[in-house]
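Lecture notes, unit on protein representations.

Consider one protein chain, 368 amino acids long.
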Amino acid sequence: MKKKLLSAIMFLSFIAILGWSHSTYAATDTYTSLIPTMTTDTSTVGKASASAVYSGLPAWKAFDGKKSYSTKVPDAWTAWGTGSTTGWLAFEFNQATVVSKYTVYYGPSASARTQPFDTGTPKNWDFQASNDNTAWTTLDTQSNISDWKDPTAKEITLSNTTAYKFYRINITGNNGNVSDNVKLSIHEMQLFGKDAPVMPKNLVATPDKATSTVGLTWDTLQNATAYNVKRAITAGGPYETIATNVTEATYKDTKADKNQAYYYVVSAVLPTGESYNSNEVNAELTTGTTTPSGGRVLLVITMVNGLEKEYDLSGSEYAQFVSWYDAKANGTGPNRYTFNKTWNMGPFKARTENVVFDKIITFDANEY
């Protein structure tokens, strides 16, 4: 009977263990303006107000989309202004809203475009929020801001994650103007909300037994020109980039070591920069043994004393032995395995033979 060698010593099988956790991000956040261009103190999302206004410089003109004090000669005023050296400019949303960034712009009047500095600009201020217009929470504080040039935007990103109805910039000092009719002004102000994170979604890790790789697939992200594949040995990173300029929504990791858990994320390359990382998945290639697909198996076990034991088994009997061996290798199950011998019975009703796990050096499986 011709026998076919199925393996030498032990075979490798692969188990993928999938898991989810928080990701770390390398992306730049994007923001959207929350206040549409205003032409009166009231808009579709809320209303503007101020501590005081100078004639022709109402609060809403700080939200009119014009980043200057005036836009033509003779001057057409496009800013909020007050005759005081201090004051506040506020916006009340119809519904509580999370503001994640704000900007304050400077631009001199059209009749004085070469003016390099305006002493009526804010120097010290608090950016504050409230839900009752009485108790205010300070989200940001700025001091000694004097480098206003045309055009200049002071852009401040906030760590705020709370929704408020009222927001205001409360200015406690200007840059020295005490003589002009308008001593303090904001030429344009914008409030921004953080956009929902853009990232590849539905990352999945799958082992490929034929090629000894971990295969990764994910959903194609609109406008992505390429993808970066990252890997870590601990959940949540830090991640090492193992592939760049991946143009398809699939990748195979050919350098994954056996018995090492890896944690994968994918980011997209967009026209605006790198996206957030995808969901995290983990995969581990663990050593084990394979079972012949059918027929019978001549199992040859080599013991530590050099003795070889042979057992003629069915495919299912061999699978039971492999299951015991793998379980014991992982620290569970009995220390010995019992074979029921159905050959060379002689006068006996039953014959069994036991092998002890720690006495086994190796075993071969020959399928026929």
